[in-house]
Each structure stands twice: as structure tokens, then as C-alpha cells.
Specification:
It is a single chain. The protein has 63 residues and is mostly helical. It has a domain at 24-58. Helices cover 67% and strands 0% of the residues. It contains 3 helices and no strands. Helix 1 packs across helix 3 (42-59) and helix 2 (25-38) runs antiparallel to helix 3 (42-59). The longest helix is centred in the C-terminal third of the chain and has 18 residues, at 42-59.
Length: 63
């Protein structure tokens, strides 16, 4: 099995969230971050903060 490059190793989660929630993905992510923060799950909050960045990166066509 080939190792993933650092910029692609985080893609499965954002892609799954986008596929499951479509246009509502940003709202779902915000709600999830809030729930994780209330649960004091700092590692997951940090992980979920990176997901919108990855979704934006995927949405911008490369020139």
C-alpha cells in the first residue's frame, strides 16, 4: 500500500461529510464542533476545525 501525501491524507473525512450533507455541510461541521467542545474533546475540535479548510481547497479549481 502506498503512503498518502500529507495534503491528501485528510481528504476522506471532508469528502464524506460533503457527500452526506451537501450544502449543509458547513452548518453540520459547526454543530459538531460545538458538541465536541461541550464534551471537552479538544483533539476532535482541532480536527474538525481543519475540515472546512480542506473543503474550500477542494472547491477551488487549480489554475
Amino acid at each position: 500500500m502506498t503512503a498518502l501525501r500529507p495534503e491528501t491524507e485528510r481528504l476522506p473525512e471532508p469528502l464524506t461529510i460533503r457527500r452526506m450533507h451537501n450544502d449543509r455541510a458547513p452548518w453540520w461541521i459547526v454543530k459538531r464542533i460545538g458538541a465536541l467542545a461541550l464534551a471537552r474533546d479538544g483533539a476532535s475540535v482541532e480536527r474538525f476545525h481543519k475540515i472546512p479548510v480542506e473543503l474550500d481547497r477542494l472547491a477551488v479549481p487549480k489554475s
